[in-house]
Amino acid sequence: MAEAMIEVQGVAKSYPSGDRMLHVLSGVDLSIEAGERVAIFGASGVGKSTFLHLLGGLDYPDAGAILFQGRRLDEMDEPTLAQYRSHEVGFVFQFFQLLPEFTALENVMMPLLIAREHGSDIRERATELLHQVGIKARSHHFPSQLSGGERQRVAIARALVSRPSLILADEPTGNLDVDTGLRVMEVFGDIQQRHGAAILMATHNAALVKRFDKVLEMQPGGGLCPCDSIPREPVGARGASRLTNEMDSDTQ
Ligand SMILES: Nc1ncnc2c1ncn2[C@@H]1O[C@H](COP(=O)(O)OP(=O)(O)O)[C@@H](O)[C@H]1O
Ligand SMILES: [Mg+2]
Question: At residue 238, does pLDDT exceed 60?
């Protein structure tokens, strides 16, 4: 059997809470294949963001292990882990987290600039991604000049610019109205499929996960259980061609 891209083995995480420990995750197992779409449901406070942070190498589990391509994150030296965070993982957050003093294009280029990539193609790569998420015409707008849906499209483009193998999306539509959220997810699904990056998304919204391969529910105290009650449709049934029809004017 092929080795999973990400392997989570018995992960536990607690936080101090007064004079006690709050056991957020315990015994969490998960594997994610290259290009796979995995959604995690769970009540607010159950530990979804904590889990995504661990997978992104932003924090360490108290027990268990997370392996990327067979290598434990907690055994990587700092430069290797930094490389993992900046090149293998792309983050999409609920509140977009764009830099307000930079344009859409500059925000998308930022991960490459921070990684000191100077190739002349950086601007073209960022522009092409803005085209793919349907807002190339807004390239020179600042975040304050964009709607919520447009800001999240910029953030999706930024998450992909370093060609990551895994996108971690933490309630990416949580700050958008329902229709805008669905449209942003359509674009997100198309671009994820086109680029072949795996996605792990935390969400509350069952309407968003139709195209996902695996839908799991995070239980209080940790543990991920299959969530079979949510209907889904295979991604192969839908083409990425919609993306090319996405007009710049067709944004929310
Ligand atoms: N850095 C932290 N220190 C202490 N407690 C934390 C910290 N981060 C999260 N928590 C607590 O851990 C629990 C899970 O939080 P979180 O992962 O943000 O849940 P979710 O994303 O599912 O809403 C919550 O009770 C939260 O208050
Ligand atoms: Mg959260």
Answer: no
